[in-house]
Design brief:
Layout (H helix, E strand, L loop, with lengths): L2 H14 L3 E6 L14 E6 L3 E7 L7 E7 L11 H7 L1 E2 L2 E2 L2 E2 L8 E5 L3 E6 L9 E7 L6 E6 L10 E10 L4 E6 L1 E5 L6 E10 L6 H18 L1
Parallel strand pairs: 7-15
Antiparallel strand pairs: 1-2, 2-3, 3-11, 4-8, 4-12, 5-6, 8-9, 9-10, 12-13, 12-15, 14-15
Helix pairs in contact: 1-3
């Protein structure tokens, strides 16, 4: 095998470990007008960082998509709008979300019209959810947030569960969901998660692949000589 044959293989392998994306469609419901139910959530990672992008079918308005990342129901933090959405709770009412068997989230991604945040989940009152990171949004779709796998307690090649529900910043829950589904009557009413999705991050390159990539470096050195 000569250098002309080896180099395209090396390029293909390098691209294979560059990034990947999975699209999760909404559940088709339009309780809040369909921005999430008729939209989709795209999860992308490169083995180091993971990006969550909501392509909404219309404006979120004053509502937030809360994506739970594989705690228990009953978070009661209403310190601000994002925390109220994550908790499904405010002074106006509460919509408790009961998670399905096999789904026990540790984090929640809150995506709003103007800001997206990552929280570490915890039971308790106002201020109990830990704010981890966040970024401003442009006020229109797409909305996105990038976090490191390490910040989620993950390493390359591991999988995690995810499920998104559209909630107002007063904890009033809609029937719209993405990357899974739930059941319940829209409002400050109990909901039950009925399904969720799983995302697997890019694996660490196998030794054989690393050896070929190393060969690329050697070929580059020989060329320069």
């Amino acid at each position: 095998m000569n250098k002309k044959t080896i180099l395209p293989i090396i390029g293909a392998l390098a691209l294979g470990y560059s990034s990947q994306a999975t699209t999760y469609n909404g559940n088709g419901d339009s309780g809040f007008g369909g921005p999430v139910g008729n939209g989709n959530l795209v999860v992308t990672d490169d083995g180091v960082n993971v990006t969550f992008t909501l392509n909404s079918a219309s404006s979120l308005g004053g509502n937030d998509l809360v994506v739970y990342l594989d705690t228990v129901p009953g978070f009661n933090d209403a310190n601000d709008g994002g925390r109220s959405a994550v908790s499904g709770f405010s002074g106006s009412g509460q919509s408790v979300l009961t998670f399905a068997a096999g789904f026990s989230p540790d984090y929640a991604l809150d995506i709003g019209n103007t800001y997206a945040s990552l929280f570490t989940l915890a039971n308790g009152g106002n201020g109990s959810l830990t704010y981890d990171t966040g970024t401003s949004q442009g006020g229109a779709s797409p909305y996105s947030l990038t976090v490191s796998l390490a910040s989620l307690g993950l390493t390359a090649g591991q999988s995690f569960g995810l499920f998104g529900t559209l909630v107002s910043e007063s904890g009033y829950r809609s029937t719209e969901a993405v990357a899974g589904n739930d059941s319940g009557t829209q409002g400050w009413n109990p909901f039950t998660q009925t399904s969720f999705a799983t995302y697997t991050t890019l694996p660490v390159p196998e030794p054989a692949s690393l050896a070929i990539l190393g060969l690329a470096g050697l070929l580059g050195l020989r060329r320069r000589k």
